[in-house]
Specification:
Low-confidence stretches: 1-34, 343-348
Structural class: mainly beta
Shape: globular
Distance between the termini: 33 Å
Largest sheet: 22 strands, antiparallel, barrel
Length: 983
Amino acid sequence: MKMKLILSTAVLFFVGGHLVEAQKTKRDTIPQDTKIDEIVVVAYGSQKRETMVGSNTEVKAKQFADRPITSIGQALDGASAGVKVSTGTGQPGSSPSIQIRGIGSYGITTNPLYVVDGTIYTGSLAAINPNDIASFNILKDAASTSLYGSAAANGVVLITTKSGRKGKDAFNFSMSTGAVGRSIPEYDRINVYQYYPLIWESIRNGRMTSIPGTTITDANAYATAQLISGVLKTNVFNVPDNQLVVNGVLNPDAKLKYTDLDWQKPLMNTGFRQNYELNYSGGSNTTTYFSSVGYTNETGYLIKSDFERFTARLKVDSQVKSWLKLGTSISGVSSNGNNSVEGVDNNSAYINPYRWTRTMGPIYSPYAHDPNTFATLYDSAGNIVYDPGSARGADAAAGRNVIQETLLNKDLSKNYYIISRAYAEIKVDPYLTLSTNVGYDIRNNRRSTYGNKIIGDAAPGGSAEKYSFTEQTFTWNQLLNYKRKFNDHNFEFLLGHESYKFMYEYLYGYKKGQIVDDNDELINFVTPATLTSRTDNYRKEGVFSRLNYDYKSKYLLSGSIRWDGSSRFAKDVRWDSFWSVGAGWRIKGEEFLSNSNLVSELKLRGSYGEVGNDRTDSYYMYKSTYTLGYNNAQEPGILFGFLADPTITWEANKQTDVGIDFGFLNNRITGSVEYYNRVTEDLIFPVPLPVSAGVPDNTISRNVGTMYNRGFEFSINADVIKTQNFTWNINANASTLKNQVTELTDGITEIINGTKKVSVGHSIYDYWLRQWYGVDPADGSPLFLVADAFANTTAADIRTVNGQKVTTNFNKAKYDYSGTAIPDLFGSFGTAITYKQWSLSAMFTYQLGGKTYDSNYAALMSAYSQGGALSTDILDRWTTPGQITDVPALNSSTYTSSNAGNSSRWLVSSDFITLRQATLSYSFAPETLSQLGVSGLRILVSGENLWSKTARKGLEPAQAANGTASNRYTPARVVTIGFNVSF
């Protein structure tokens, strides 16, 4: 009797004691009594899943191969419980921010460690072609990560690239093309017809407040006189300025002089994405090979934002002798980027298209117009003339034009990568294997920016910047692996050494005063403003060992230890040990469950261990540094650059993990439930210093804190229906997270940073804000809870409303904790359906609980805007005594309190659900393939970021882990159509 198996890409199996690598979906037949053990990638090796005691989630290539993504970071979103992905910027070619099991640090990186084919990788994730990846494994607990020692505190992602296979040569070609658009809509804002009366109302109310006794008639007249000439500077209607708004109502005879008032449409349109992949693989009984070339070109929906990448890769593995195996791989990558937003994350720069299009009042046109005919103006060459902003209000960026500046300015980047790996494996005897792995990566980045000489920061002379840096990393490890079985006792012992070196060289030049047009090389500029260079080096040495033991694959033990030395710290604190222990009980192996048809897998496991984090911002944490180049004429000058604490050392991460893995109905239903408690000690904080210290930011980095991250994780995968012609799979994961600071030392009791305050008993992401109370129904004043220091005063700005002591003065408002950015629950769920040759898959990501500080919305809710945009919610403002509303009266005299930042008024629910990915495909039947002369043909439609639901239109809660919204490039919606063909 025989049975059917479905084997998927890059999953390793032991069949009858021989290693089999499945490269594509196929149907095999094997004897019914043959046992199949799934092998998964672990630190410095592989292991049977059933004997693992750590938390290791494997994501196979088939789960992301069809997605139109440029970075493997995008594939991590929703892939595993406990993994939280922040979208960051949607700039083509960018990568999201990843957190595994909470917030690993405060003052240094919280990103996981990436390991590619056995050695550490520190380059951009966008340099790795997702189509070259066979699988990646997410290591979350100390039992899984401790062998990476001082770099593993934030988790580890092991990336395994594709290899060839023995047998017939295979060619595979795929292509896709499609559209790129904006996935997050803009906030709702009032239109040009509503705008003038609202600003008029604010001026009128402000006049009555600032000059008590002013009559309504006089206040109306004042508002009419000031509306255009004093505040907004521009009247886009065909009636005189003093007749535009009459008693708060727009003149019904007013007609627009011109209608080209839209700033967003010229900046944002439909982009284009195309991707081409060709690979060739095969092999003999002794040698296998895999080669690929790829090309990706994505033009963003924001003008002058695009990403182009060329990749080429070759991997060869050869069994040279029965006792010797050698292998090597090399990848070459060239990418070009065009950033239309200078600095990308620059939230306040006038050149930021998101800030501009979001906050520009609806009465200003991007273009110049004839003052008599109102026709749009063109120059002698037929080019449209842009409005320089000479007639705009104070909140409308007078003297700037983001469309013109974006078109004239440049921000170009080029990246070149070589990613190389090599290994040798010597089989000394059936039990002992010696191996060595070498990794060498080099990256050269060149960035060139140009500021035009017509309008903007660089006008009138123009400016140019040139950046260049080179990163080199070298990793070499040597491994001894001893594996032996004594009756039912299985032992595996690993001993290894690893050397890591990082080298960085940086060169920067900046000049002003352009000589000849259309040449942005530095030689074409007159004034050398800045010229600087820098070199950094970082070394790390580690010795490590691991022992795994199991009895009949039922009782499992594991232990590991690593000694690491890091050049980032002083000699006395440079070395430390990191270790873990783990145990498991595979209950399914017990006699009372071994023959169960219901329970196909059941395993209890637990672990405890300590890992570290030495990935600090400075490579010389123990050395005070100085900045050169601050010269006065011919006299040299230096400034303090960094004040060091010679006792500073790595952060220590101590983690407990308990979990249960289960499978039912011949593993038709599988999943796991886990609890973790992750304690970080010796947190590196920027400790405040007096101004007299004379150091940048008046801080010094020290180990002064302790915090924990703890939570539950749940995942499930179920084949609901599984027949010959129809299958239906569903999957889901969910995670909770509780973060809390438990200790601050060195005299530190609190650290306030923007909207957050760090103190004992609270999360790093807890908000510390002015306490908004609401709106006084009597007069529409903004109200805050009054600070204790002013509660007993009798000032005019202190009042009692509904029995509560409040203030209208934001400077007297009470500060308090106001919730957290951390959600109560987050995760994903998805489904996959196949019917004959048709296949449909979809994945949703979600978040419940937590709050976002919506500073973008706050900017649209001004009680007195001098040319800035306003939210449609402003229409709910207070206007009549006794009115109940949460929007204060418009008032040009008291608007500073209404608009006050760092207020709990601007918090909004972070709940969201997003259709992150969906794919529909059709695979041609074998009889059609034989007629076409191909071995496989599949067509598909795929999309990313297709739909989302949030608490407020325009909000992107997943933008940043700390919950603070900003004017950044929002994620792109990508829809492509393509095909895959195999020969």
